[in-house]
Amino acid sequence: MSEIRLVRPERTWSVTPATVLPAGLLARLFRLHWSYTVVLDHRVAGKIGINQVKVFNVDPGEHFLRMRFVLLRRSKEMRVPLKEGQERLFLCGTNGLGWPTLREASPEDVAEIRGASVIEPSNSEPSNSEPSNIEPSTPDDPVS
To answer: In this structure, what is the dihedral angle of CA atoms 124, 60, 109, 52, given to the nearest 10 degrees?
Structure first.
């Protein structure tokens, strides 16, 4: 079995024109924090909220991963190839306009997350010797 691990850390917001739009400002004033829907292999796999970690045990091979919020707002779909026993860590969040984002965690992100005690440290450190094989893809049949 292989693992896809999603982390949604709480981020502080800087003041830019993109973060002070009326809808975004109201959501931040009233502390509205919605969960995102995790879509794995074109099927809903669960929801993830702020400061949560979700682990999905999957078979080795190629998988497709995206985040969705309120039906039409979604992140780019990522193609994730996994080998037997491999674990991949992804960060999800929101851009300044409220759209979900998804990216593979860098070694700096992993160190920051482990330092914040969001996820437990594993025995194996991520390898920098292999290049990332994740590519955004455009499915023929979009998930709604």
So the answer is: -110
Characterize the bridge pairing of strands 100-104 and 135-137: unpaired
Are 39 and 68 within 8 A, CB to CB?
Answer: yes
Helix (H) or strand (E) holding 55: strand 52-58
In a domain, 89, yes or no: yes
**What is the rounded average pLDDT of the residues 35-46?**
92
Is residue 134 predicted with pLDDT exceeding 60?
no
| CA 74 – CA 78 distance, rounded (Å) | 12
Q: Which of 3-12, 54-63, 108-117, 129-138 has the lowest mean pLDDT?
A: 129-138
pLDDT at 47 over 50: yes
59 band by pLDDT with thresholds 50, 70 and 90: very high
Number of domains comprising the chain: 1
Query: Which amino acid does the sequence have at 5?
Result: R
Determine, yes or no, domain membership for 141: no
Tell me which residue range forms the domain holding 18. 2-136
Contact 80, 6 (CB under 8 A): no
Three-class SS of residue 124? coil
Q: Is the dihedral of CA 24, 27, 33, 35 positive or negative?
A: negative
